[in-house]
Write a structure and sequence with these properties.
Blueprint lengths: L4 E2 L14 H4 L22 E5 L2 H15 L9 H20 L8 E10 H5 L5 H5 L1 E4 L2 E13 L17 H4 E9 L8 H15 L4 E7 L3 H9 L3 E5 L2 H6 L5 E7 L7
Parallel strand pairs: 6-7
Antiparallel strand pairs: 1-6, 2-3, 3-5, 4-5, 5-6, 7-9, 8-9
Helix pairs in contact: 2-3
GO molecular function, one term: acyltransferase activity, transferring groups other than amino-acyl groups
InterPro entries: Acyl_CoA_acyltransferase, GNAT_dom
Organism: Salix dunnii
Length: 261
């Protein structure tokens, strides 16, 4: 299954980085020859965890740039532009995790990583060069990433309805910047990331978890709905036109402990 890219409107300078959610949850076509066959990777070496390590956050920022943007190879200064975008996301990500963004009670970056040695044996790609980091003497690659946000709403996005009142300030959360390296789509990494994000959200006391998805992004909708999310609301057409992005849906998931779950 081709995967999503669930990034927020990534004006990386706004509280919710401004990659228009259209790009956040936007599907970019890739040829089958670029995709590793399903179940070819060794899941026993997969690690999914929260991180505040700058090296790993930088690798996650680079993966988001290559997932949420399309670049023409002939574009002048393309490498400088990619680095500029990665630096902006990196700095914004650090600020969000450090609690310096107004409106966010807590933000965590979850990364799925694999050993560099395993990926080099599968293909020779810039993924290994761009999204690599070292930890405990081992070279690993960020192959999937997302943010868990504890907050009442994400800027420029449809706001969830549950729970109501003041409880929504700490019991409501959103997933954002969900993406998996295009070479590794159809290997279940998106499901693994979301499963871990549920555990993190529940640990924080979140009872109502939301995610936004573009209406035309069928693979992403399938991923979320198979993970337990259901439809709650959709974005008005005028708002999508104003923000110059595809209209999107708001999906809801009740976590254990929620009386509606």
């Amino acid at each position: 299954m081709a995967l999503l890219s669930s990034s927020p409107s990534l004006s990386i300078t706004s509280p919710n980085y401004r990659y228009y959610a259209s790009r956040r949850l936007c599907l970019y076509p890739i040829t089958a020859t670029h995709v590793v066959a399903p179940n070819l990777i060794d899941k026993s070496s997969l690690i999914i965890s929260e991180t505040s390590s700058e090296d790993q956050l930088w690798a996650a920022a680079c993966l988001r740039v290559r997932s949420f943007h399309e670049f023409k190879p002939s574009t002048f200064g393309i490498q400088d532009h990619k680095r500029y975008l990665a630096e902006r996301e990196f700095e914004a990500l650090k600020e969000r995790i450090a609690g310096k963004r107004t409106g966010f009670n807590r933000v965590s970056c979850l990364n799925a990583t694999l050993p560099l040695s395993q990926l080099l044996s599968l293909f020779d790609d810039d993924l290994c060069a761009q999204c690599k980091f070292s930890e405990n003497g081992e070279d690993r690659v960020v192959v999937g990433t997302l943010d868990v946000n504890q907050c009442t709403n994400l800027p420029d996005e449809i706001t969830g309805k549950k729970p109501e009142g003041i409880e929504g300030q700490f019991a409501r959360g959103y997933l954002s910047n969900v993406c998996v390296a295009k070479e590794l789509h159809r290997n279940g990494l998106g499901y693994d990331l979301i499963a871990t994000s549920k555990a993190v959200a529940q640990k924080w006391g979140i009872t109502d978890l939301y995610v936004h998805v573009a209406v035309n992004n069928e693979p992403a909708k399938q991923l979320y709905m198979k993970s337990g999310f259901v439809y709650e609301n959709d974005e008005p057409a005028w708002q999508a036109r104003f923000l110059d992005r595809p209209r999107r849906l708001l999906l809801w998931l009740g976590l254990p402990g929620n009386q509606n779950w």
